[in-house]
Amino acid sequence: MVVYIALAAAAALVGIDQLLKWVAVTYIQPQGSIPLLKIADKEWLNLTYQENTGAAFSILEGQQLFLIILTSLIIIALIVVMVMKKVKRKPYIWAFALMIAGGLGNLIDRIFLGYVIDFVDVRIINFAVFNFADICAVCGGILLFVFVIYDEIKDWRKKKKTKAVASEATDNGQTGAENG
Hints:
- This protein is α+β, with helices and mostly antiparallel strands and 180 residues long.
- The chain is 66% helix and 14% strand.
- It has helices at 2-28, 64-83, 90-113, 132-179, and strands spanning 33-39, 42-52, 116-122.
- A 3-stranded antiparallel beta sheet has the order 1-2-3.
- Strand 1 (33-39) and strand 2 form a beta hairpin.
């Protein structure tokens, strides 16, 4: 049941992404850029309309067919893994749902527009302009990474504890045999 709720949430996030991109086209594109956060005459955060024909940081620019195929395969694989219940842990399911939402939001742009609409412009650092779908995909990836690391540490501690208990039992058994 959680899988289907997570996939429905992913669909809702795709809807939010597409709505925000419509707002970007309708209201930001005509102006080019709108300052959102300005401190002491320095623009920190703007809404800036950009059309990205590549992936993150414009890598693979102009490789739309490759990006469409790759993104489609990843999304399909994640959905299949979720629906076939290969992933049972809820945190992993939600991380996958975020990655699906992000990938699908940008895939829709690539297929129908030939580029991805970006509009979040963090100017305090020299960073690429990005969008809501990117935020979903990156947050999903980070969450998945954190959950995997957490689980690995937990398993390592459990194995260490089991090994210590087994070692202690062996030591006690030898001591008892020696005393008998």
